[in-house]
């Protein structure tokens, strides 16, 4: 019985060994699976050369074209007025911005005018006797002389004798002394040079204002300028009067401007040229940051593509019979995201979007998008 069991186990082991050996031989001869070749789908477009505008991007903040920094030339106490001297207050042209108490100085002006009047009155008898031909004009001048009004100009002196007489009595020097005092008296009141708005106020009613003290800033809110710095390569392209499109940083508001001035010199440190763009709109405020697009010139027989399509060595990928190839191109202008290219023949099929890992000779599957080149 024992021999029978051992014989059965031996037969099973031999059969199992034969099966395992057969399986190993079969697996060894089985062919390895071939990886399926993946063909990438690429966006393409057909080149059509046209005239492309070179647009120069620039940015800057707005500054009022007409602005005045208010300074005091005399000393006095700030008198209250109908309007509060506060930022945001509007004034019409000729309206008083600041009025200082000038009662003491006004009295000295009146005293000087009275002295001039008395001197003129004192010479009238001598004029009547010695210069009867000029007596009437000086009498007429004295008659219209009013202490409460501005001193009128002296009559024209027509002879040498008259000149010696009038000058010798100190009338000319007294007259110009009075005019000087009147001129200084006018500085106790500062009027708006144009219709505008107060943007800065550094004094308040009742405070003592000193000579040379800054009082505030006044601007015309109807017209602004934006200063932009451009590469010196555009110096010959910028023209006064060129139209400019401006927008805010969000790109939601657009404004029309014009190049008003171009600096005649180039900054030696930055090698840039400064241009000033004039813009007018009720929505604008001083200090707003805007972006500008200046039309510099037009490039004929060229196309505009994304910068990431340009390869090192000034080449781009093209598609020929579903295979990628490269051709040489001539870049004409670079912007932040775009590049203007020349020397690409019409009808050339090139990539519209870059392909990761692309190389010359790579097999691709072209796909033409519904948006044609040049559509904005």
Automatic annotation (TrEMBL):
Residues 67-215 form the Multidrug resistance protein MdtA-like barrel-sandwich hybrid domain. This is MexE family multidrug efflux RND transporter periplasmic adaptor subunit. Gene3D superfamilies: 2.40.30.170, 2.40.50.100, Helix hairpin bin. It comes from the Bacteria. GO terms for cellular component: efflux pump complex. InterPro entries: MdtA-like_BSH. The gene is acrA. The lineage of its organism: Bacteria, Pseudomonadati, Bacteroidota, Flavobacteriia, Flavobacteriales. GO terms for molecular function: efflux transmembrane transporter activity.
